[in-house]
Amino acid sequence: MSRVRIPPVLRETVGGARELEASGGTVLEVLDDLFAQHPALRERVTTDGKLSPFVNLYVNGRDVRYTTGLATPVSPDDQVILLPAMAGGSAAHASAAGGSH
Amino acid sequence: MRRQPEGPTRPMILGDLVAAIGHTPMVELRRLAPHPGVRLFAKIEGANPTGSVKDRIARSMLADAVASGALQPGQTILEPSSGNTGISLAMIGSRMGHPVRIVMPDNTTPEREHLLRVFGAEIVFSPGAEGSNGAIRMAQRLAEADASVYMPFQYGNEANPRAHQEETGPEILAAVPEVDVFVAGLGTGGTLTGVGRALKAARPGVRVVAAEPLPGEQVQGLRSLEEGFVPPVLDQSVLDDRYLVGNREAVGGVRRLMAEEGIFAGLSSGAALAVALRVAAEMDRGTIVALLADDGSKYLSAGLWNRDLDTLETEMERSVLW
Q1: Is the whole-model pTM more than 0.80?
Q2: Is A40 part of any domain?
């Protein structure tokens, strides 16, 4: 079983859990197992069957969008992190993309 | 005919401090390179006049705004910042005769507040629990309510990546033309986008790798997933890889930079080093350049170099340091 870390903003969909366990050999299989346990999570993080652009997914800290996406292999010792899309650094996320004033 | 006496070359004298921005040192990290096949270099942006890479974009955004007429003489500059951009805008803006007002989360380090005030900025604090997100929202509200202010908005201002495409990137290429991988922290995305474009235009195979902070749970600042934000200036097509770095690993990088190379750098620099080392470990040979975005002076009170890591990690969950 792999450990999947759930960010605060998504915890209400998984009964408040900070971390869950899920099985599967790829990111897709792990997500499917997670969604079977918590259907509300599926509704929040997928759009038309695809991972929402507002969600980033990391296996051992590496963003899977830059590796092999949902086909990225996951082994039982791996940590999977779900995180809302946001830039870090000297400030980050905003509710609306602003512009120059 | 008398020969001129030989002596040391007279050093260049700059017209003012703003002209001293950029052309920062490139240093090889021989002790940190994990094996002989990989050369590791650091671009020391803490050597800019106010101690961070943000001097470059502050200069670029303000010059652009003056040229376009968006910034009028004497107009107040308003910007959300967790420190560095605000300090850079304060140094440059106040010298141009503009009052500078910075919206900053109330849970950063005290050094940032002191430096902003020393450089002449006014500070408006936003709730720390809302993270940098809250500072941006508050700055946008203030700007909408007061048409007399000018907000550069580093997250959406093309003069941000352009400064790196036209200056930082070419400086890197001039110093390390054989660069294979470029690593930098992900904040506004301006550095990665601008440097990435410059490097890829010159060396199509170069890889651009982001070190992304794993924010503390108490400062994630999102009320819903849809509040997530990808800064408009971040061109994600320039990125080839993206690694999440937790506070503990970033602090580890900060400590190694000091212990092994004597480099006094800030938290995102530690994260960039950590990612550069991960990438290096997977390479047989090649050349990596990591951009170290600021010096360590704004983190002294946080005790990054000397405090117990567990205590530090717990505290950092509640603060905005990167």
Answers
A1: yes
A2: yes
